[in-house]
Every structure is written in structure tokens, then in C-alpha cells.
Amino acid sequence: MRLAPVLLLAAVLRAQEGKPPEAAVDTLSLLQGRRALWRSAALDGWGQAFNREWLKALAFSGGEAAIVAGAVVQHRRWRDWRARRRAATDPQWLAYDMSREDFYLRDRNKLIWWWLWLKLGCTLDAYVSGAMSNFDAGWGLSLAPAVVGGAPGLELRWAPAAGRRGGAR
């Protein structure tokens, strides 16, 4: 009775011998993804530049610069209006002043939330792009200029991809 489990195990192992080995995880791509993720976490766009995606890097870093600059401006305005409200004595001016101060505070906080969402998207994009840097898509869409019926136009083609993307280090 104790021989049955041993024979079953031997049969399973024997059956596995003929199968090709499963594809190993590409640790180089995962390392590329992690490196890009940490770079993007430090500074938006740095991970995309590490992955050689220059337009994305420019877009993310420009977006971060614009949002942070806007938040700094709104914080300064909020601080100035708060100082003016503390110095004011007219009740009508105080009501208007408080509404402006509240607007600047809310706008600054909204920009901080946008920055956090941009940071999250940037780091996730850098990780996925880095981890998929060795992935061969196989087939892809391409749009090329063509002459259609004697008139210039565009032709959409479904064809094998040109090759692997660069970026693995």
C-alpha cells in the first residue's frame, strides 16, 4: 500500500521529463522595471528617460513642474491673503478676503492631489515600460502614407512588428 504514492510520484516525474521547460522569468527586465520605478519615484520623467522614452519623460517632468509651480504660487497667494485678512478691519472686506483665501487654499490642495496622481501614474508607467522592455509584441498596427485611387492618403497595416524595443540594460 505504501508503494502506490511512490509509483504515482515516479509516473508524474516521468511524464514531466518530455515537456519543454517553462519559460523562466526575465530577471533583467524586472530589474530594469524596478530601477525605472525608483527613478520615477524620485523625479517624474527620470524613469522614462532611463527606459529611453524621451517624449514621455518630457511630458511627465513638464507636468510635474507645472503642477508644483502652480501649487507654490497658490500657497504664496493663500499666505498673502491670510496676512491681509488679519490686518483688515472692514467687515465686508473680511468676508471677501476669506472667500479668496479659501479659494487659494482649496486650489493649492487640489494641485497637490493632482501631483500625487501624476507621481503614481509616472512610477507605474516607468515600471511597466521597464519590465516589458524585452517583450516582443509580434504583430502591430502601422500607419503609412499611400496613394489610394490616384489620391494621396494613409494606409493602415496589420503586420509583424519591426523587432524588440531597446532599453534592457
Verbal overview:
Mean pLDDT is 78; it is low at 164-169. The radius of gyration is 29 Å and the shape is flat. The chain is mainly α. A two-stranded antiparallel ribbon has the order 1-2. Helix content is 66%, strand content 12%. The chain has helices at 3-17, 27-42, 46-50, 54-87, 91-131, and strands at residues 139-148, 151-160. It folds into 2 domains: 26-133; 137-164, no CATH class. The chain contains 5 helices and 2 strands, in the order H-H-H-H-H-E-E. Strand 1 and strand 2 (151-160) form a beta hairpin. Helix 2 runs antiparallel to helix 5 (91-131).
In a nutshell, what does this entry contain?
With 169 residues, the chain is mostly helical. It has five helices and two strands; from the N terminus they run H-H-H-H-H-E-E. The longest helix is centred in the middle third of the chain and has 41 residues, at 91-131.
Q: State the order of secondary-structure elements, H for helix, E for strand.
A: HHHHHEE
The major pleated sheet works out as: 2 strands, antiparallel
Mean pLDDT: 78
User: From the alpha-carbon coordinates, what is the Rg to the nearest angstrom?
Assistant: 29 Å
Structural class determined from secondary elements = mainly alpha
SSE layout and pairings?
Layout: H1 3-17, H2 27-42, H3 46-50, H4 54-87, H5 91-131, E1 139-148, E2 151-160
Antiparallel strand pairs: 1-2
Helix pairs in contact: 2-5, 4-5
